[in-house]
Amino acid sequence: MKPEPLGVTLVIPGRNAERTIASCLDAAVPLLGHDGLQEIIFVDDGSTDRTPEVVGAYPVTCLKLDGRGPGAARNLGWRAATTPLIWFLDADCVAEPDTLQLLLLHLDDPDVAGVGGSYGNMHPDSLLACLIHEEIRERHLSMDADVNYLGSFNVLYRREVLESVGGFDETFITAEDADLSYRITARGHHLRVEPSALAGHHHPTRLRPYLRTQRLHGYWASRLYARHRGNAFGNSYASFLDHIQPVVAIAALMGVPGLALSRFRFLSLALLLALFLLHLPMTGRLLRRTGSWRMALFAPLGMLRAVARGLGMCRGLVGAITYKLNPRRDTFALLV
Question: Radius of gyration (Cα) for the chain, nearest Å?
């Protein structure tokens, strides 16, 4: 006889999520009472739109926070829960009916502290969304079952493990999920990924907002890897070649003026070529798996993204130096 699944609480953090939270809850609420899901907690992190009104129409617990960020929102949610398992889902994600069931299978192993799923694409008509989505899917499909990094958009953790490491670091605005993963694995716990456990995601459809977000990712990555230096050269999701792309992008950007000078032209062109070549392996994998020639556009998109992340990392480095000189001014926060 199959044992009853352990109790699960779904925690959804969100701020100004009126555009996506209805579809998220439309998919999640019918799962209540199945696979051990006992409660859904939505943490409203200081919304100024109709998010509270939309959430109020569903049988979920709604907690309030004052805009302190996703890490703080997730901490408030899981600490209010009473179940031994916590499922985190982002407010712009739509879980498939079998997502929780597929995640739970991995926790039959008592050594597994958490398991993460993957994405579906809610905007298949957008070229940008498709490029973003197919890269993420390719990475998830290529990961080993045991990993050292899990995104928090669709992930199931044991509550006792969250308690043992103190939950999410609330000082991170992004990269809080990577920081949590690194701290959990440093304690000797195992993490797994289940690529078939899908949550549809509203990937970006406009380039400028996407690049602005990537700049912030680069900014917070500088703080993340200042703390976790051993992971700075790659993790289960991204390799060393991925991690050096922003560095090469900034070098190439600085070398652009050299194109006008014959003495430096070769070096400038070499840096641009190197940045392009770093994106060819992923571009080739996307072309082979999807069979769509549109994926050839991933290379130029990746180059632009590397520049955005590189600029963010430079700002983070300036912030770190300034903070060392004057610890009373946390420029990591001031420069966001």
Answer: 21
